[in-house]
Amino acid sequence: MAEEPVAIASGTNTYTRLMDPNRKWYNNRRLIALNAWIVLLLITSSTNGYDGSMMNGLQFLTQWEEYFDHPTKGKLGLLNAIQNIGALAGYPFAPYMADGIGRRPTVFFGALIMVIATAMRSASQSVGMFIGARFLVGVGLTFAANAAPMLVTELSYPKYRAALTSAYNSLWYSGAIIAAWATFGTFKINNTWAWRIPSLLQAIPSVFQQGKGAEALKTLAYYHADSNEDDPLVKYEFEEIKAAIELDRAVAANVGWKSFFSTTGNRKRVRIIVAIAFFSQWSANGLVSYYLNKVLTSIGVTDPTIQLLISGVLQIWNLVWALAASSMVERFGRRLLFMTSVVGMSIFFTMQTICTARFSINGNKSAAHAVIAFIFLYSAAYAIAFTPLIVTYTLEILPYNIRAKGFNISNLTISLAIVFNQYINPIALDAIGWKYYIVYCVWFVFESIFLYFYIIETNNRTLEETVAIFDGTGTTDPSITSAATSAIAETQSTISRGVNRRLQSESSENS
Protein backbone atom coordinates (compact mmCIF):
# COMPACT_ATOMS: atom_id res chain seq x y z
CA MET A 1 0.00 0.00 0.00
CA ALA A 2 2.87 2.40 0.71
CA GLU A 3 3.89 2.31 -2.94
CA GLU A 4 0.42 3.05 -4.30
CA PRO A 5 0.46 6.85 -4.05
CA VAL A 6 3.74 7.03 -5.98
CA ALA A 7 2.43 4.71 -8.66
CA ILE A 8 -0.77 6.72 -8.94
CA ALA A 9 1.00 10.07 -8.92
CA SER A 10 2.08 9.85 -12.47
CA GLY A 11 0.56 12.91 -14.11
CA THR A 12 -0.93 11.88 -17.43
CA ASN A 13 -1.27 8.23 -16.41
CA THR A 14 -3.21 9.27 -13.32
CA TYR A 15 -5.64 11.30 -15.37
CA THR A 16 -6.03 8.45 -17.84
CA ARG A 17 -6.94 6.05 -15.05
CA LEU A 18 -9.36 8.45 -13.38
CA MET A 19 -11.18 9.87 -16.41
CA ASP A 20 -14.48 8.44 -17.59
CA PRO A 21 -13.66 6.96 -21.03
CA ASN A 22 -17.22 7.67 -22.21
CA ARG A 23 -17.04 11.39 -21.44
CA LYS A 24 -16.31 13.18 -24.72
CA TRP A 25 -16.29 16.88 -25.54
CA TYR A 26 -19.24 16.38 -27.89
CA ASN A 27 -21.52 14.15 -25.78
CA ASN A 28 -21.45 15.97 -22.43
CA ARG A 29 -23.23 19.32 -22.28
CA ARG A 30 -21.08 20.60 -19.41
CA LEU A 31 -17.86 19.86 -21.26
CA ILE A 32 -19.34 21.64 -24.27
CA ALA A 33 -20.09 24.65 -22.05
CA LEU A 34 -16.63 24.55 -20.48
CA ASN A 35 -14.93 24.43 -23.86
CA ALA A 36 -17.10 27.31 -25.06
CA TRP A 37 -15.87 29.43 -22.14
CA ILE A 38 -12.29 28.37 -22.84
CA VAL A 39 -12.68 29.51 -26.46
CA LEU A 40 -13.41 32.99 -25.10
CA LEU A 41 -10.14 32.79 -23.19
CA LEU A 42 -8.34 31.75 -26.34
CA ILE A 43 -9.53 34.99 -27.94
CA THR A 44 -6.86 36.76 -25.88
CA SER A 45 -4.34 35.37 -28.35
CA SER A 46 -6.52 36.56 -31.23
CA THR A 47 -6.27 40.11 -29.90
CA ASN A 48 -2.49 39.91 -30.11
CA GLY A 49 -2.64 38.56 -33.65
CA TYR A 50 -5.11 41.24 -34.65
CA ASP A 51 -2.78 44.01 -33.49
CA GLY A 52 0.23 42.72 -35.41
CA SER A 53 -1.69 42.05 -38.61
CA MET A 54 -3.54 45.37 -38.37
CA MET A 55 -0.28 47.32 -38.32
CA ASN A 56 0.88 45.26 -41.29
CA GLY A 57 -2.36 46.07 -43.12
CA LEU A 58 -2.35 49.78 -42.31
CA GLN A 59 0.91 50.13 -44.21
CA PHE A 60 -1.00 49.16 -47.37
CA LEU A 61 -3.46 52.04 -46.86
CA THR A 62 -2.54 55.36 -48.45
CA GLN A 63 -5.04 57.03 -46.08
CA TRP A 64 -3.00 55.94 -43.06
CA GLU A 65 0.31 56.68 -44.77
CA GLU A 66 -0.76 60.22 -45.66
CA TYR A 67 -2.34 60.96 -42.28
CA PHE A 68 0.90 60.06 -40.48
CA ASP A 69 3.18 61.63 -43.09
CA HIS A 70 4.48 58.44 -44.75
CA PRO A 71 6.49 56.95 -41.84
CA THR A 72 9.66 55.09 -42.82
CA LYS A 73 12.73 53.55 -41.20
CA GLY A 74 12.97 54.43 -37.48
CA LYS A 75 9.61 56.17 -37.30
CA LEU A 76 7.82 53.21 -38.88
CA GLY A 77 9.78 50.88 -36.63
CA LEU A 78 8.66 52.81 -33.53
CA LEU A 79 5.01 52.78 -34.62
CA ASN A 80 5.21 48.98 -34.80
CA ALA A 81 7.47 48.36 -31.81
CA ILE A 82 5.74 50.63 -29.29
CA GLN A 83 3.07 48.01 -28.55
CA ASN A 84 5.72 45.59 -27.33
CA ILE A 85 7.54 48.35 -25.48
CA GLY A 86 4.27 48.78 -23.59
CA ALA A 87 4.23 45.04 -23.00
CA LEU A 88 7.68 45.27 -21.43
CA ALA A 89 6.35 47.87 -18.98
CA GLY A 90 3.70 45.43 -17.78
CA TYR A 91 5.90 42.37 -17.33
CA PRO A 92 7.26 43.25 -13.85
CA PHE A 93 3.71 43.29 -12.47
CA ALA A 94 1.75 40.68 -14.47
CA PRO A 95 2.90 37.49 -12.68
CA TYR A 96 2.34 38.98 -9.23
CA MET A 97 -1.19 39.98 -10.15
CA ALA A 98 -1.90 36.55 -11.67
CA ASP A 99 -0.66 34.80 -8.53
CA GLY A 100 -2.06 37.39 -6.11
CA ILE A 101 -5.63 38.16 -7.18
CA GLY A 102 -6.09 35.25 -9.57
CA ARG A 103 -5.97 34.49 -13.28
CA ARG A 104 -9.50 35.61 -14.18
CA PRO A 105 -9.34 39.11 -12.60
CA THR A 106 -5.95 39.62 -14.26
CA VAL A 107 -7.40 38.75 -17.68
CA PHE A 108 -10.30 41.14 -17.05
CA PHE A 109 -7.94 43.94 -15.94
CA GLY A 110 -5.82 43.55 -19.07
CA ALA A 111 -8.88 43.48 -21.33
CA LEU A 112 -10.23 46.66 -19.75
CA ILE A 113 -6.98 48.52 -20.46
CA MET A 114 -7.04 47.28 -24.06
CA VAL A 115 -10.59 48.50 -24.63
CA ILE A 116 -9.69 51.99 -23.36
CA ALA A 117 -6.47 52.05 -25.40
CA THR A 118 -8.24 50.90 -28.57
CA ALA A 119 -10.77 53.72 -28.25
CA MET A 120 -7.90 56.21 -27.87
CA ARG A 121 -6.06 54.84 -30.88
CA SER A 122 -9.16 54.91 -33.07
CA ALA A 123 -9.68 58.58 -32.16
CA SER A 124 -6.01 59.53 -32.69
CA GLN A 125 -5.41 63.03 -34.01
CA SER A 126 -1.62 62.80 -34.11
CA VAL A 127 1.26 60.36 -34.31
CA GLY A 128 1.94 60.88 -30.60
CA MET A 129 -1.61 59.93 -29.63
CA PHE A 130 -1.47 56.85 -31.86
CA ILE A 131 1.85 55.78 -30.36
CA GLY A 132 0.63 56.36 -26.78
CA ALA A 133 -2.52 54.31 -27.38
CA ARG A 134 -0.51 51.44 -28.84
CA PHE A 135 1.74 51.56 -25.78
CA LEU A 136 -1.33 51.05 -23.56
CA VAL A 137 -2.55 48.20 -25.76
CA GLY A 138 0.75 46.47 -25.04
CA VAL A 139 0.41 47.02 -21.29
CA GLY A 140 -3.10 45.55 -21.22
CA LEU A 141 -2.20 42.65 -23.45
CA THR A 142 0.64 41.69 -21.10
CA PHE A 143 -1.72 41.16 -18.17
CA ALA A 144 -4.30 39.26 -20.21
CA ALA A 145 -1.80 37.13 -22.13
CA ASN A 146 0.15 36.22 -18.98
CA ALA A 147 -2.89 34.85 -17.15
CA ALA A 148 -5.12 33.44 -19.91
CA PRO A 149 -2.96 30.45 -21.03
CA MET A 150 -2.48 29.34 -17.42
CA LEU A 151 -6.23 29.51 -16.86
CA VAL A 152 -6.79 27.42 -19.99
CA THR A 153 -4.30 24.83 -18.74
CA GLU A 154 -5.79 24.69 -15.25
CA LEU A 155 -9.48 24.55 -16.29
CA SER A 156 -9.34 22.26 -19.33
CA TYR A 157 -10.58 18.69 -19.06
CA PRO A 158 -7.34 16.63 -18.86
CA LYS A 159 -8.00 14.68 -22.05
CA TYR A 160 -8.14 17.88 -24.12
CA ARG A 161 -5.66 20.01 -22.19
CA ALA A 162 -2.69 19.73 -24.58
CA ALA A 163 -4.77 20.44 -27.68
CA LEU A 164 -6.52 23.44 -26.11
CA THR A 165 -3.30 24.91 -24.73
CA SER A 166 -1.63 24.46 -28.11
CA ALA A 167 -4.62 26.09 -29.81
CA TYR A 168 -4.09 29.19 -27.67
CA ASN A 169 -1.13 30.51 -29.61
CA SER A 170 -2.46 29.08 -32.88
CA LEU A 171 -5.46 31.39 -32.65
CA TRP A 172 -3.08 34.34 -33.08
CA TYR A 173 -3.89 33.85 -36.73
CA SER A 174 -7.65 34.15 -36.20
CA GLY A 175 -7.10 37.73 -35.09
CA ALA A 176 -4.64 38.24 -37.94
CA ILE A 177 -7.26 37.04 -40.44
CA ILE A 178 -9.89 39.47 -39.15
CA ALA A 179 -7.41 42.36 -39.25
CA ALA A 180 -6.17 41.51 -42.75
CA TRP A 181 -9.66 41.33 -44.23
CA ALA A 182 -10.86 44.34 -42.22
CA THR A 183 -8.17 46.50 -43.82
CA PHE A 184 -9.00 44.97 -47.21
CA GLY A 185 -12.65 45.90 -46.69
CA THR A 186 -11.96 49.49 -45.68
CA PHE A 187 -9.05 50.52 -47.92
CA LYS A 188 -11.41 52.06 -50.51
CA ILE A 189 -12.95 54.43 -47.95
CA ASN A 190 -11.54 57.80 -48.95
CA ASN A 191 -11.08 59.24 -45.48
CA THR A 192 -9.49 58.41 -42.13
CA TRP A 193 -12.16 55.83 -41.30
CA ALA A 194 -10.24 53.53 -43.64
CA TRP A 195 -7.77 52.99 -40.77
CA ARG A 196 -9.93 54.01 -37.78
CA ILE A 197 -12.45 51.18 -38.34
CA PRO A 198 -9.84 48.36 -38.28
CA SER A 199 -8.30 49.98 -35.20
CA LEU A 200 -11.67 50.13 -33.44
CA LEU A 201 -12.54 46.49 -34.18
CA GLN A 202 -9.77 45.29 -31.87
CA ALA A 203 -11.96 46.14 -28.87
CA ILE A 204 -14.55 43.48 -29.78
CA PRO A 205 -13.04 40.29 -28.28
CA SER A 206 -14.83 39.23 -25.11
CA VAL A 207 -13.29 38.48 -21.75
CA PHE A 208 -13.79 35.17 -19.98
CA GLN A 209 -14.58 35.42 -16.28
CA GLN A 210 -14.17 32.50 -13.92
CA GLY A 211 -14.53 32.15 -10.17
CA LYS A 212 -11.69 30.91 -7.99
CA GLY A 213 -10.78 30.02 -4.43
CA ALA A 214 -13.56 28.27 -2.54
CA GLU A 215 -15.45 27.73 -5.80
CA ALA A 216 -12.64 25.64 -7.32
CA LEU A 217 -14.04 22.29 -6.20
CA LYS A 218 -17.56 23.12 -7.38
CA THR A 219 -16.23 24.38 -10.70
CA LEU A 220 -14.15 21.26 -11.35
CA ALA A 221 -17.00 18.99 -10.25
CA TYR A 222 -19.59 20.83 -12.35
CA TYR A 223 -17.64 20.70 -15.59
CA HIS A 224 -15.51 17.56 -15.17
CA ALA A 225 -17.91 15.19 -13.36
CA ASP A 226 -21.48 16.49 -13.65
CA SER A 227 -21.33 18.09 -10.16
CA ASN A 228 -20.11 14.90 -8.45
CA GLU A 229 -17.64 16.25 -5.89
CA ASP A 230 -16.71 12.70 -4.85
CA ASP A 231 -15.54 11.76 -8.35
CA PRO A 232 -11.93 10.45 -8.11
CA LEU A 233 -10.75 12.66 -11.01
CA VAL A 234 -12.22 15.78 -9.40
CA LYS A 235 -10.68 14.89 -6.05
CA TYR A 236 -7.30 14.36 -7.67
CA GLU A 237 -7.45 17.67 -9.54
CA PHE A 238 -8.67 19.58 -6.50
CA GLU A 239 -6.06 18.08 -4.19
CA GLU A 240 -3.40 18.84 -6.78
CA ILE A 241 -4.47 22.49 -6.80
CA LYS A 242 -4.55 22.69 -3.00
CA ALA A 243 -1.19 20.94 -2.66
CA ALA A 244 0.36 23.24 -5.25
CA ILE A 245 -0.96 26.33 -3.48
CA GLU A 246 0.32 25.09 -0.12
CA LEU A 247 3.65 24.27 -1.69
CA ASP A 248 3.75 27.73 -3.23
CA ARG A 249 3.16 29.32 0.17
CA ALA A 250 5.67 27.09 1.90
CA VAL A 251 8.49 27.92 -0.47
CA ALA A 252 7.48 31.50 -1.33
CA ALA A 253 10.60 32.86 0.36
CA ASN A 254 12.79 30.80 -1.96
CA VAL A 255 10.80 31.23 -5.15
CA GLY A 256 11.97 34.63 -6.25
CA TRP A 257 13.55 35.30 -9.60
CA LYS A 258 16.82 33.92 -8.27
CA SER A 259 15.24 30.46 -8.06
CA PHE A 260 15.52 30.16 -11.84
CA PHE A 261 19.30 30.13 -11.53
CA SER A 262 19.73 28.37 -8.18
CA THR A 263 19.37 24.79 -9.47
CA THR A 264 20.67 22.95 -12.52
CA GLY A 265 17.14 21.90 -13.50
CA ASN A 266 15.81 25.43 -13.48
CA ARG A 267 18.78 26.73 -15.42
CA LYS A 268 18.02 24.12 -18.10
CA ARG A 269 14.42 25.31 -18.16
CA VAL A 270 15.39 28.96 -18.51
CA ARG A 271 17.81 28.14 -21.33
CA ILE A 272 15.11 26.35 -23.30
CA ILE A 273 12.33 28.84 -22.53
CA VAL A 274 14.41 31.87 -23.51
CA ALA A 275 15.73 30.16 -26.65
CA ILE A 276 12.41 29.01 -28.11
CA ALA A 277 10.77 32.33 -27.19
CA PHE A 278 13.53 34.21 -29.03
CA PHE A 279 13.43 31.80 -31.96
CA SER A 280 9.66 32.27 -32.25
CA GLN A 281 10.23 35.92 -33.20
CA TRP A 282 13.67 35.77 -34.79
CA SER A 283 12.97 33.19 -37.46
CA ALA A 284 12.35 35.78 -40.21
CA ASN A 285 8.63 35.71 -39.41
CA GLY A 286 8.79 39.37 -38.43
CA LEU A 287 9.37 40.33 -42.06
CA VAL A 288 6.06 38.87 -43.20
CA SER A 289 4.12 39.61 -40.01
CA TYR A 290 4.91 43.33 -39.85
CA TYR A 291 6.45 44.39 -43.18
CA LEU A 292 4.80 42.25 -45.84
CA ASN A 293 4.21 45.33 -48.00
CA LYS A 294 7.97 45.94 -48.18
CA VAL A 295 8.64 42.28 -48.99
CA LEU A 296 6.05 42.29 -51.79
CA THR A 297 7.17 45.67 -53.12
CA SER A 298 10.72 44.32 -53.38
CA ILE A 299 9.51 41.74 -55.95
CA GLY A 300 7.40 44.17 -57.96
CA VAL A 301 3.99 43.54 -56.34
CA THR A 302 2.89 47.12 -55.66
CA ASP A 303 -0.90 47.09 -56.21
CA PRO A 304 -2.51 47.55 -52.73
CA THR A 305 -5.46 45.34 -53.69
CA ILE A 306 -3.17 42.43 -54.60
CA GLN A 307 -1.03 43.02 -51.52
CA LEU A 308 -4.05 42.98 -49.21
CA LEU A 309 -5.44 39.85 -50.88
CA ILE A 310 -2.14 38.02 -50.43
CA SER A 311 -2.05 39.13 -46.78
CA GLY A 312 -5.61 37.94 -46.12
CA VAL A 313 -5.19 34.56 -47.79
CA LEU A 314 -1.83 34.04 -46.05
CA GLN A 315 -3.41 34.46 -42.61
CA ILE A 316 -6.10 31.86 -43.41
CA TRP A 317 -3.38 29.51 -44.67
CA ASN A 318 -1.42 30.01 -41.43
CA LEU A 319 -4.44 29.37 -39.20
CA VAL A 320 -5.23 26.09 -40.97
CA TRP A 321 -1.67 24.82 -40.50
CA ALA A 322 -1.43 26.01 -36.90
CA LEU A 323 -4.70 24.36 -35.84
CA ALA A 324 -3.77 21.17 -37.71
CA ALA A 325 -0.47 21.10 -35.83
CA SER A 326 -2.27 21.71 -32.52
CA SER A 327 -4.32 18.58 -33.11
CA MET A 328 -1.18 16.56 -33.87
CA VAL A 329 0.87 17.60 -30.84
CA GLU A 330 0.00 14.45 -28.88
CA ARG A 331 0.40 12.17 -31.88
CA PHE A 332 3.78 13.28 -33.23
CA GLY A 333 5.36 14.81 -30.14
CA ARG A 334 7.04 18.13 -29.51
CA ARG A 335 10.58 17.38 -30.66
CA LEU A 336 9.60 16.07 -34.11
CA LEU A 337 7.40 19.11 -34.77
CA PHE A 338 10.15 21.53 -33.69
CA MET A 339 12.77 19.86 -35.89
CA THR A 340 10.44 19.56 -38.90
CA SER A 341 9.57 23.22 -38.51
CA VAL A 342 13.11 24.59 -38.31
CA VAL A 343 14.38 22.44 -41.21
CA GLY A 344 11.41 23.45 -43.35
CA MET A 345 11.88 27.14 -42.55
CA SER A 346 15.58 26.93 -43.37
CA ILE A 347 14.93 25.42 -46.81
CA PHE A 348 11.99 27.60 -47.83
CA PHE A 349 13.42 30.90 -46.58
CA THR A 350 16.73 30.20 -48.28
CA MET A 351 14.84 29.60 -51.53
CA GLN A 352 12.86 32.81 -50.94
CA THR A 353 16.15 34.69 -50.53
CA ILE A 354 17.59 33.25 -53.74
CA CYS A 355 14.48 34.06 -55.77
CA THR A 356 14.29 37.61 -54.35
CA ALA A 357 17.91 38.11 -55.31
CA ARG A 358 17.23 36.87 -58.87
CA PHE A 359 14.38 39.33 -59.28
CA SER A 360 16.44 42.17 -57.83
CA ILE A 361 19.37 41.43 -60.14
CA ASN A 362 17.63 40.78 -63.46
CA GLY A 363 13.88 41.38 -62.91
CA ASN A 364 12.94 37.72 -63.42
CA LYS A 365 9.13 37.62 -62.96
CA SER A 366 9.10 33.86 -62.50
CA ALA A 367 11.44 34.32 -59.54
CA ALA A 368 9.03 36.91 -58.10
CA HIS A 369 6.12 34.46 -58.35
CA ALA A 370 8.26 31.80 -56.70
CA VAL A 371 8.93 34.17 -53.79
CA ILE A 372 5.19 34.31 -53.06
CA ALA A 373 4.98 30.51 -53.14
CA PHE A 374 7.95 30.18 -50.77
CA ILE A 375 6.41 32.73 -48.39
CA PHE A 376 3.41 30.42 -48.05
CA LEU A 377 5.55 27.30 -47.65
CA TYR A 378 7.80 29.01 -45.11
CA SER A 379 4.76 30.22 -43.15
CA ALA A 380 3.36 26.68 -43.01
CA ALA A 381 6.68 25.36 -41.69
CA TYR A 382 6.74 28.05 -39.00
CA ALA A 383 3.12 27.40 -38.00
CA ILE A 384 3.47 23.67 -37.33
CA ALA A 385 5.69 24.16 -34.26
CA PHE A 386 6.47 27.72 -33.25
CA THR A 387 2.83 28.76 -33.22
CA PRO A 388 1.23 25.94 -31.18
CA LEU A 389 4.15 24.82 -29.02
CA ILE A 390 5.61 28.02 -27.56
CA VAL A 391 2.90 28.19 -24.88
CA THR A 392 2.34 24.44 -24.51
CA TYR A 393 5.98 23.42 -24.18
CA THR A 394 6.86 26.31 -21.87
CA LEU A 395 4.05 25.48 -19.43
CA GLU A 396 4.79 21.74 -19.59
CA ILE A 397 8.37 22.06 -18.39
CA LEU A 398 7.60 24.53 -15.58
CA PRO A 399 6.56 23.25 -12.13
CA TYR A 400 3.51 24.97 -10.66
CA ASN A 401 5.39 27.09 -8.12
CA ILE A 402 7.47 28.88 -10.79
CA ARG A 403 5.01 28.64 -13.68
CA ALA A 404 3.71 32.23 -13.62
CA LYS A 405 7.18 33.76 -13.36
CA GLY A 406 8.62 31.33 -15.91
CA PHE A 407 5.87 32.10 -18.38
CA ASN A 408 6.54 35.77 -17.78
CA ILE A 409 10.20 35.22 -18.72
CA SER A 410 9.01 33.65 -21.97
CA ASN A 411 6.70 36.56 -22.76
CA LEU A 412 9.39 39.09 -21.84
CA THR A 413 11.85 37.43 -24.21
CA ILE A 414 9.28 37.39 -26.99
CA SER A 415 8.57 41.09 -26.57
CA LEU A 416 12.27 42.00 -26.53
CA ALA A 417 12.81 40.02 -29.73
CA ILE A 418 9.76 41.62 -31.37
CA VAL A 419 10.83 45.14 -30.40
CA PHE A 420 14.22 44.56 -32.00
CA ASN A 421 12.63 43.03 -35.11
CA GLN A 422 10.00 45.71 -35.53
CA TYR A 423 12.44 48.57 -35.12
CA ILE A 424 15.45 47.19 -37.01
CA ASN A 425 13.72 45.38 -39.90
CA PRO A 426 12.49 48.47 -41.81
CA ILE A 427 15.85 50.18 -41.37
CA ALA A 428 17.76 47.12 -42.63
CA LEU A 429 15.39 46.50 -45.54
CA ASP A 430 15.73 50.10 -46.71
CA ALA A 431 19.53 49.96 -46.34
CA ILE A 432 20.53 46.62 -47.89
CA GLY A 433 17.29 45.11 -49.26
CA TRP A 434 17.24 41.36 -49.90
CA LYS A 435 20.80 40.95 -48.57
CA TYR A 436 19.31 41.34 -45.08
CA TYR A 437 17.62 37.95 -45.59
CA ILE A 438 21.02 36.27 -45.50
CA VAL A 439 21.29 37.09 -41.78
CA TYR A 440 18.28 34.87 -41.12
CA CYS A 441 19.55 32.11 -43.41
CA VAL A 442 22.68 31.85 -41.25
CA TRP A 443 20.66 32.15 -38.04
CA PHE A 444 18.52 29.13 -39.00
CA VAL A 445 21.65 26.96 -38.81
CA PHE A 446 22.14 27.95 -35.18
CA GLU A 447 18.47 27.36 -34.38
CA SER A 448 18.59 23.88 -35.87
CA ILE A 449 21.66 22.90 -33.85
CA PHE A 450 20.22 24.24 -30.60
CA LEU A 451 16.83 22.56 -31.01
CA TYR A 452 18.45 19.25 -31.94
CA PHE A 453 20.60 19.12 -28.81
CA TYR A 454 18.43 20.79 -26.19
CA ILE A 455 14.73 20.19 -26.91
CA ILE A 456 13.50 17.37 -24.66
CA GLU A 457 10.50 15.31 -25.67
CA THR A 458 7.68 15.69 -23.14
CA ASN A 459 4.99 13.80 -25.05
CA ASN A 460 3.72 10.67 -23.28
CA ARG A 461 5.76 11.53 -20.20
CA THR A 462 4.18 11.96 -16.82
CA LEU A 463 4.68 15.19 -14.93
CA GLU A 464 7.03 13.40 -12.52
CA GLU A 465 9.09 12.03 -15.41
CA THR A 466 9.39 15.53 -16.87
CA VAL A 467 10.52 16.88 -13.49
CA ALA A 468 13.06 14.06 -13.22
CA ILE A 469 14.54 14.89 -16.64
CA PHE A 470 15.35 18.40 -15.50
CA ASP A 471 16.02 17.92 -11.80
CA GLY A 472 17.38 14.39 -11.63
CA THR A 473 16.01 10.89 -11.12
CA GLY A 474 13.98 10.53 -7.96
CA THR A 475 12.94 14.16 -7.94
CA THR A 476 9.21 14.79 -8.03
CA ASP A 477 6.89 17.73 -8.02
CA PRO A 478 5.60 17.71 -4.42
CA SER A 479 2.23 19.06 -5.51
CA ILE A 480 1.63 15.97 -7.68
CA THR A 481 2.62 13.40 -5.10
CA SER A 482 0.68 15.22 -2.39
CA ALA A 483 -2.33 15.50 -4.66
CA ALA A 484 -2.32 11.81 -5.42
CA THR A 485 -1.87 10.86 -1.78
CA SER A 486 -4.67 13.15 -0.63
CA ALA A 487 -6.97 12.16 -3.46
CA ILE A 488 -6.49 8.46 -2.77
CA ALA A 489 -7.03 8.98 0.95
CA GLU A 490 -10.21 10.96 0.27
CA THR A 491 -11.48 8.38 -2.21
CA GLN A 492 -10.73 5.49 0.14
CA SER A 493 -12.43 7.38 2.97
CA THR A 494 -15.51 7.88 0.81
CA ILE A 495 -15.60 4.19 -0.09
CA SER A 496 -15.12 3.19 3.55
CA ARG A 497 -17.98 5.42 4.67
CA GLY A 498 -20.20 3.91 2.00
CA VAL A 499 -19.29 0.36 3.03
CA ASN A 500 -19.86 1.14 6.73
CA ARG A 501 -23.28 2.63 6.00
CA ARG A 502 -24.20 -0.43 3.97
CA LEU A 503 -23.06 -2.82 6.75
CA GLN A 504 -24.97 -0.83 9.35
CA SER A 505 -28.07 -0.92 7.17
CA GLU A 506 -27.80 -4.67 6.69
CA SER A 507 -27.21 -5.15 10.43
CA SER A 508 -30.34 -3.16 11.25
CA GLU A 509 -32.40 -5.19 8.80
CA ASN A 510 -31.14 -8.47 10.28
CA SER A 511 -31.90 -7.36 13.81
Automatic annotation (TrEMBL):
It comes from Mycena rosella. One of its GO terms (cellular component) is membrane. The keyword Translocase does not apply. The keyword Cytoplasm does not apply. The chain crosses the membrane at residues 31-50, 101-119, 131-151, 171-189, 272-292, 304-324, 336-361, 367-395, 407-424, 436-455. PROSITE patterns: MFS. This is General substrate transporter. GO terms for molecular function: carbohydrate:proton symporter activity. Residues 37-459 form the Major facilitator superfamily (MFS) profile domain.
